[in-house]
Write a structure and sequence with these properties.
Strand content: 15-25%
Largest sheet: 3 strands, antiparallel
Shape: globular
CATH topology: Multidrug-efflux Transporter Regulator, Chain: A, Domain 2
Strand order of the largest sheet: 4-3-5
Structural class: alpha+beta
Number of helices: 7
CATH class: Mainly Alpha
Helix content: 25-40%
Order of helices and strands: EEHHHHHEEHEH
């Protein structure tokens, strides 16, 4: 409970003294999703998402609640849904699980982790050079202007508009919340 100062006439000289007056707080709204809702939002099989939650072959740990024991279930935050959406998109686009793990580790590696990476809604580029994967993150339209630009030693290049992916997830979340 926070304290608010008020005038207390019984205090010497009528000075301000702490009084226990509860402060009004705005409720924190946390979007929470079940496995079924995540599956519906991403249009991905429940088994895939469940497997990725328990470490087969990815380990995307739910941040709201981890299922423990019989009858309990995982609860996912919107950031968890974004992470699963990113992994799902990369999987659908043909990336191996090893590459997806590597890209997720890259995204989590920033100062504030995956949430910070996703909140910026950047372009993710993945290039292959002599059998080695390289990632980059670009802000703005730069990645789209020169997608076929030749770079020394680059054999292939993949560009994902993370912002568009997140906006699509947001639309699907809104649709589910409306009951549609």
């Amino acid at each position: 409970m926070k304290l608010r100062l008020s005038r207390d006439s019984s205090a010497p000289g009528g000075k301000a003294s702490p009084a226990r007056v509860p402060m009004q707080r705005k409720p924190l709204l946390l979007q929470v999703f079940t496995l079924g809702e995540v599956s519906e939002i991403l249009r991905a099989p429940k088994t895939r998402i469940k497997n990725w939650t328990i470490g087969r072959p990815l380990k995307i740990i739910p941040t709201v609640r981890i299922a423990e024991g019989k009858g309990s279930r995982n609860l996912y935050s919107v950031t968890d849904v974004y992470a699963i959406a990113l992994a799902n998109r990369l999987s659908e686009d043909g990336f191996t699980m090893t590459a997806i793990k590597w890209i997720l580790a890259f995204a989590r590696g920033g100062r504030r982790g995956l949430e910070s990476f996703l909140s910026k809604r950047l372009f993710l580029t993945v290039s292959r050079s002599q059998g080695e994967l390289m990632t980059g993150v670009h802000i703005g339209e730069r990645s789209w202007r020169y997608p076929a630009r030749r770079e020394k030693g680059i054999i292939s290049k993949y560009i994902l508009d993370v912002g568009s992916l997140m906006r699509e997830v947001d639309k699907r979340v809104a649709k589910i919340r409306r009951g549609g």
